[in-house]
Write a structure and sequence with these properties.
The protein has helices at 24-43, 50-57, 61-67, 71-86, 100-116, 118-130, 134-154, 166-186, 193-204, and strands spanning 2-5, 8-11. With 205 residues, the chain is mainly alpha-helical. β1 (2-5) and β2 form a beta hairpin. The longest helix is centred in the C-terminal third of the chain and has 21 residues, at 134-154. The radius of gyration is 19 Å and the shape is elongated.
């Protein structure tokens, strides 16, 4: 969810799983995905077995299989949940009338969100590089494509410097954010979104 403030952009992401008390199946599925997330954040994807998820959720392997499916299905459900909360293209990013000046605020807010969610963001890299399966990679590629399009749409009609097109600028922005994500995971204590934005601006002037 995106919230516009007078001082800039504040991105509220990574909400808790919210399920309806009257709907048992989504409630059970949500609890199982939450259990899978807790396991993956501590033990990595190798620890994400049906038995581990069942034990963490206080249920049986049969319930996990009946609700979500096999081990790969559990991983896909977890990946979909993570992508929906870290590469959330549906939150309808918009560039306000201030135009290009707000682009830096948008990128800075995204980087701050990445920093807050570094362990979850790291799971995306695990899925892509540790589990080189196209079922996972295809979902990540699609999410990144939608994410880029959200920035491209936000820049439509905005006069950009150096003759850049919205498509080119959105590609640069996503590349910058991907690099920032790696740095956040590798050395989070020495990463500052404001300094990163200032450094990028200095390189372009």
């Amino acid at each position: 969810m995106r919230v516009r403030r007078e001082t800039g952009w504040r991105i509220e992401r990574y909400p808790q799983i919210v399920v309806g008390a009257k709907d048992e199946e989504p409630d059970r599925r949500g609890a199982l995905v939450k259990a899978a997330l807790d396991i993956a954040l501590v033990e990595g994807l190798d620890g994400l077995t049906l038995e581990a998820v069942a034990e963490k959720a206080g249920t049986s392997v049969e319930v996990v299989q009946r609700t979500i499916g096999g081990q790969d299905d559990v991983m896909l459900a977890l990946l979909d949940w993570v992508l929906a909360r870290t590469l959330d293209a549906d939150r309808d990013i918009e560039t306000p009338h201030a135009g290009p000046r707000q682009l830096g605020d948008m990128v800075s807010a995204e980087m701050e969100g990445l920093r807050r969610q570094a362990p979850v963001v790291e799971l995306i890299f695990m899925f892509y590089f540790v589990r080189p399966d196209d079922r996972f990679r295809a979902r990540i590629r699609e999410a990144l494509s939608n994410y880029r399009h959200s920035f491209e749409s936000a820049l439509e009609g905005v006069e950009l410097q150096r003759g850049l097109t919205p498509r080119a600028m959105s590609t640069i922005v996503i590349s910058f954010l991907q690099g920032a994500a790696v740095q956040i995971i590798r050395d989070p204590d020495n990463f500052d979104p404001t300094e990163a934005i200032a450094a990028a601006r200095a390189l372009l002037t």
